[in-house]
Design a protein that fits this description.
The protein has helices at about 25-35, 65-80, 100-110; strands at about 5-20, 45-55, 85, 120-125, 135. The chain is of the alpha+beta class. It binds nickel (II) ion. Nickel (II) ion binds near residues 18 and 37.
């Protein structure tokens, strides 16, 4: 069974505030670009992140990666930094980055990828709302 490539996913949730705003643009330009997402005092989302690791099941354990371990990696290296935080000001790895879903998912990849030692990180999907989500595959 070791020649099988299997995709293993773990979901996690966090709640955070952000404001979409570029300092080099005027208030009017920010409003035109980001609309209500540029609201001066921010707004919040309940985000869901799905992390997928690909690999061959280990011949002994049968696991690609132990999901308890994947949960711990996601919590320790991503969720604890963003949950109940202001993404514009509180998160070291988002400093100077507009916290769009696109930029958050790429930052999440950089946080998590170095810690995946079984299988390989394949995809991270980030839901900002039920209907709006982005994916990053490390490219
Ligand atoms: Ni938003």
């Amino acid at each position: 069974m070791t020649s099988l490539k299997v995709y293993v996913s773990r979901k996690a949730h966090f709640s955070a505030a952000h404001r979409l705003y570029h300092p080099s643009l005027s208030e009017a330009e920010n409003l035109a670009l980001f609309d209500k997402c540029s609201n001066a005092n921010g707004h919040g989302h309940n985000y869901t992140v799905e992390v997928t690791v690909a690999g061959n099941p280990d011949p002994i354990s049968g696991y690609v990666i132990d999901l308890k371990k994947l949960k711990r990696i996601i919590d320790e290296h991503f969720i604890q930094f963003v949950d109940h935080k202001n993404l514009n000001t509180d998160v070291p790895f988002l400093q100077g980055i507009i916290p769009t879903a696109e930029n958050i998912v790429a930052a999440c990849w950089l946080q998590i990828q170095p810690h995946i030692n079984e299988g390989s990180l394949y995809c991270i999907r980030l839901y900002e709302t039920e209907n709006n989500f982005v994916e990053y595959k490390g490219e």
